[in-house]
Write a structure and sequence with these properties.
Chain lengths: ~210, ~210
DNA sequence: CTATTAATGTGGATGCTGACAACATGCTAT
DNA sequence: ATAGCATGTTGTCAGCATCCACATTAATAG
C-alpha cells in the first residue's frame, strides 16, 4: 500500500544505507553550529529525510548518540596526540611538547567534539571503552613524561601531577579558547600563540 | 522556618513570596545532583508547590534561568577570589597564589555553579553584566600579576598570557576534578594536592 | 481608607520532543 | 523460495516549553 511513498520520494530506496554514520556527522555539525542543547533526534531525522524514529535502530536515545560521539572523539584525540608524539622524533622533550600541542590543537580544531567530551552530562554516561582510551592516554603520556624528566624537566615532581597539569591545561585551554565570553572579553586572543606559550611553560625547551 | 515551607504545608497563601530566589536555589540543587540536562522548569515548579507556569514571571525560559545563575556565579567567584587576595597580605606573590588557589577552590566547592558557567550553551547567552565581571576579574588579576612580576616571576612573559595561564588552569582543574571519567580513571586524585601543585608551578614561591 | 494599577500566580492550549510498540521492507544465507 | 535479521515506517503517548487569558495579592496614589 505504498504508492504514497513513491509520490513523496521519487528515487529513494526504503533503506537509507548509512544512517548511523550520517546521524553522527550531522549531529556533530549541529552541535558545532548551535550547541549540544539544540540537538534533537527528530530534527536529525528530518534533516536526513528519514522517519522520526529511524534513529532508534542505531541509538536507543539521545544520550546514547552523544555517548557514541564521545567515544569516537576520545579515540580520535588519542591517536592524534600519540601520532604527533611519534612524528616528533626521539628527543623526549620535543616529543612531549608535540603531544601537548597536538592535543590542544585537536580541541581547538574539533570544537564540537571537544564540547561533547567536556560536557558533564555526557561524560557521566562514559563506558568501559572511554575509560580504556583514557588509560591508554595516561600510559602514553606518562612514558613521554618520564623521558622528559630524564632530561631534568621537573625531575622530582610526581608523574601523575605532571600528567594532570597537561590534561588540565589542555582541557582548560579548550574551554577558554572556545568560550564566546572569554573570546570576546580578552583582546586579540590567538589560539596558536596561547598554545605555544602554555606548552613552553609546561615543558620548557631549556632546562629550568 | 522559611516562608516557603509554610506555604507548602497549611498556610496556603496565593503568593509564594520568594519564588525567584528559591527557583535559583533548587535549580542549583538539581544541577548539582543530576546535571544541567536534567533541569526542567515544570519540575522546579512542582518541587516548590507552585503552578507550572509561575516561573515564567521571573524567567522567560530555561535559558534565562541559567543565565541568571551564571551571573550570580561569576559575581560570587570574583568576590571570593579578590577577597582571598586581599586577605593574603601585601606580598604580591603570596597574593597571586592566594587568588589562584581561592578561584580553583571556588570551582571545586561550587560544582554546580562551575558547571553552569563552563557550559557553552549557557555562556553563549552571557550579557553585559557577565562581561563586566570578567573585565573586573582581569583588572584585579593583572594588577596582582604585575606585582608578582616585580619579584621576578615570569618577568618577561606578557601579562595577558600569565592571566590566561591562570584562567586556563582554573577552568581546566574544575573540569577535570569534577568529571567522573577522570576522577574514576586516575588513582587517588586529591583536589587539594593538585591545586597546591598547580599553584606552585604557576606562581612559585622561590625565584625561578 | 479606598480605588486603581502593577506584580505575581493559575489553568488551559498548542506544538515539539523522547520514547515505545506494531508493522513494512529489503538483504542474505540456506 | 523462504526464513531470519537488520533497518526503516507509522502511530501513539507522556513530558516539557511557551503562550495566553484570567485570578489574586501588594503597592500606591488620592
Amino acid at each position: 500500500m505504498s504508492v504514497a511513498y513513491d509520490v513523496l520520494n521519487d528515487d529513494d530506496t526504503y533503506h537509507h544505507g548509512n544512517l548511523r554514520d550520517e546521524l553522527i556527522d550531522t549531529a556533530v555539525d549541529v552541535i558545532g553550529r548551535e550547541g549540544v542543547a539544540a540537538l534533537s533526534l527528530r530534527a536529525l531525522a528530518r534533516d536526513l529525510g528519514v522517519s522520526h524514529s529511524a534513529p532508534t535502530r542505531h541509538f536507543k536515545n539521545k544520550a546514547e548518540l552523544l555517548s557514541a560521539i564521545m567515544e569516537e572523539a576520545y579515540e580520535d584525540m588519542l591517536t592524534t596526540t600519540v601520532d604527533a608524539g611519534y612524528l616528533a622524533g626521539d628527543n623526549p622533550v620535543h616529543r612531549l611538547r608535540a603531544m601537548a600541542r597536538a592535543c590542544m590543537r585537536w580541541h581547538v580544531d574539533n570544537r564540537a567534539l571537544s564540547e561533547v567530551i567536556r560536557n558533564p552530562d555526557v561524560s557521566r554516561t562514559a563506558g568501559r571503552n572511554v575509560k580504556e582510551v583514557l588509560a591508554a592516554f595516561y600510559i602514553h603520556s606518562s612514558r613521554a613524561i618520564l623521558g622528559a624528566q630524564g632530561q631534568s624537566r621537573n625531575p622530582d615532581r610526581p608523574v601523575e601531577f605532571v600528567y594532570l597539569s597537561m590534561i588540565v591545561s589542555v582541557v582548560g585551554a579548550a574551554s577558554v579558547l572556545t568560550d564566546p565570553v572569554y573570546v570576546e572579553t580578552l583582546p586579540a586572543l590567538d589560539a596558536d600563540e596561547l598554545i605555544d606559550d602554555m606548552v613552553d611553560h609546561l615543558f620548557p625547551l631549556k632546562d629550568g
